[in-house]
Amino acid sequence: MSAAPEGHVADSHEVIRVRGARENNLTGVDVDIPKRRLTVFTGVSGSGKSSLVFGTIAAESRRLINETYPTFVQQFMPQLGRPEVDALENISPAIIVDQERMGANARSTVGTATDVHAMLRILFSRLGHPFVGSPQAFSFNVPSVSGSGAVTVAVGADAGREERRSFQITGGMCPRCEGLGEVSDIDLDELFDRSKSLAEGAITIPGYNVDGWMVRGFTESGFLDPDKPIARYTEQEVQDFLYREPTKVRIQSMNMTYEGLVPKVTKSMLQKDRDSLQPHVRAFVDRAVKFMPCPECDGTRLNAGARSSLIGGVSIADAAAMQITDLAGWLDEVDDPSVAPLLAGLRHTVRSFIDIGLGYLSLDRSSGTLSGGEAQRTKMIRHLGSSLTDVTYVFDEPTAGLHPHDIQRMNALLRGLRDKGNTVLVVEHKPEVIAIADHVIDLGPGAGRHGGRLEFSGDVAGLRASGTLTGRHLDHRAAVKPSVRSATGTVEIRGASQHNLRDVDVDIPLGVLTVVTGVAGSGKSSLIHGNLSGRDGVVVVDQSPIKGNRRSSPATYTGLLDTIRSAFAKANGVKPALFSANSQGACPACSGLGVIVTKLGISASVETVCDLCEGTGFNDEVLAYTLDGRNIAEVLAFSAAEAADFFTRGPAHATLARLIDVGLGYITLGQALNTLSGGERQRLKLAISMAGSGAIYVLDEPTTGLHLADVDNLLALLDRLVDAGNSVVVIEHHQAVMAHADWIIDVGPGAGREGGTVVFTGPPSDLVASGDTLTAQHLRQYLGR
């Protein structure tokens, strides 16, 4: 009898094998990643972690899955290119759970994004009294409509006979606000200047230029006299200008749709999520429009019929408005065998919210108002009860926005996904998460072109002994300062009651570093953003996306490019426009993009480096001009640190010095803005904002995306801002920032309804010595007290 084989051939695929990964700054990385284990990727910001995990492994998994669909279907899917890697073996389907906001749809809520609201609609359609209709009768996205008319039978014995037919759709949408939950009152004087004509630029809305198509649609429609001041319009002209229904018109041999200014602005700006708008458009909306809860539905988005159906005295609007911890208790009281499977699914999903630390939310909360960390955890909900196994879950700093008290709960969820037989890949900096890893991969040693190399691969004990930057800082702890600065004044907040705040009175000290902390959902952001932001002299630096296109870069965003172009123009005696890849200096073949985009119909488009300009985006004439021996393309390829050595004085050096100060010395001047992480975006905004003095800076979790070694650099930067005469207010969970503060404001004691009060104010030493809050407990643990 022959000996039994030692193992099945299928068991030989136990590692994800990466060979020659060169995406972004990766320098031919070779690494094996164990499957069905929890692997944490570490390294300084910009070291290449995301390039390896998201840009290589997850991207190739998604690309291969997309290729299994017919080409007809693929044309409607994201077009993904193959990552720069020699070999990538044994990858499994990847589910990416990142920190991107959950879209800017004003109709999207926590309930609709997680399908909990869909299950609630079914529940009320089955058990609600009185019965009002099918599940769509409880949907605020479905209007109630009806109609009737005559139809002619085309076939059969009754062919040619006319019959009268009618239909009725019962939806739950509030007819007044159309399911948005709020109505707006427009100040017409903010839309146009009545004393001017359209040809003179009467319309004052952003983007409505006199010679642009938005205005030409009015001036060339035939309904209005472009040279007549709006104040002299007849009643019919005012009606046509402001409120006319969509009408087909012909302008310069093109068929176009004319629509009144008010409905046009309402659709293009007012019905979009406010936070998704560009800053100048948002400022216009704030001036022109006053939003208020819909008086007909009280902000519930639902019509009277949907609100009238009750289960145990509770309507679907009441259920959606409950804090999720309260909703879980109400669901436990609902008992009907006819909907037992539905109730079980609902209870499990709602319990997942609580387990993941989001029990303070409500289902009617707009998804656009969630922070990056909250959005990421909300996306996790649908995966927690999944029966899928052998899947690769990819997380981007899942502890972002989490208080130390909540991190242990997140760790349990990550281990739960692993224990179901999944591969869990986590990009993370927090020592608490690194400590639970089965395997750690450390990239570095530096950032940008100084990183991209494999520094360590092994277990946590090996990382501690490795001598790498991460290993050396794994047990590093910041200390409480022996003495703190004294406040030079205060900003008073009185009677703060936004969201869950309970009539809070607190003084924000000036001239010091103040840290506002508390568990997620305690009311920190409501307190600061709702009462301090917007005041004169307050500069808010957050992690919201920077608006721009594929041509936008740190050089354009900071204004550096204008300075650089002027320097090149002065040195060579030509116009600055010549040194713009968007203008006269653009390569004629690729129009300044640096790549040629070839569209292949229903197949994926292909981008290839432009042969003429070799990817620089500039024409040969421009590249012939130099500044101190370097052409414009070479300068834009500099990192901020290299550029600071090149521009040794003047406004360019000052801007570059601020970029280095905020820890962005590694980013290149010409790289696309959409390649920056949330933390990098925040620090880029901070670099622009920190030029002045005497301001109050509000930073929202600035340690997001920062390596343990970079946190010390951030603390030094915050000290420099305060020492320069500024006041700094930081919303933060990181214990190192708390320990380094001059003053702490702790909000709590819990989240949601259990929070909303100030439970401690004072220096960190007092919080450590005598505080009894959750923050005090974890800060003492961090400091080893």
From TrEMBL:
<dbReference type="InterPro" id="IPR017871">
    <property type="entry name" value="ABC_transporter-like_CS"/>
</dbReference>
<comment type="similarity">
    <text>Belongs to the ABC transporter superfamily. UvrA family.</text>
</comment>
<keyword id="KW-0067">ATP-binding</keyword>
<feature type="domain" description="ABC transporter">
    <location>
        <begin position="10"/>
        <end position="470"/>
    </location>
</feature>
<dbReference type="InterPro" id="IPR027417">
    <property type="entry name" value="P-loop_NTPase"/>
</dbReference>
<keyword id="KW-0227">DNA damage</keyword>
<keyword id="KW-0228">DNA excision</keyword>
<keyword id="KW-0677">Repeat</keyword>
<keyword id="KW-0963">Cytoplasm</keyword>
<dbReference type="InterPro" id="IPR003593">
    <property type="entry name" value="AAA+_ATPase"/>
</dbReference>
<keyword id="KW-0267">Excision nuclease</keyword>
<dbReference type="Pfam" id="PF00005">
    <property type="entry name" value="ABC_tran"/>
</dbReference>
<keyword id="KW-0547">Nucleotide-binding</keyword>
<keyword id="KW-0238">DNA-binding</keyword>
<dbReference type="InterPro" id="IPR003439">
    <property type="entry name" value="ABC_transporter-like_ATP-bd"/>
</dbReference>
<protein>
    <recommendedName>
        <fullName>UvrABC system protein A</fullName>
    </recommendedName>
</protein>
<feature type="domain" description="ABC transporter">
    <location>
        <begin position="484"/>
        <end position="774"/>
    </location>
</feature>
<keyword id="KW-0234">DNA repair</keyword>
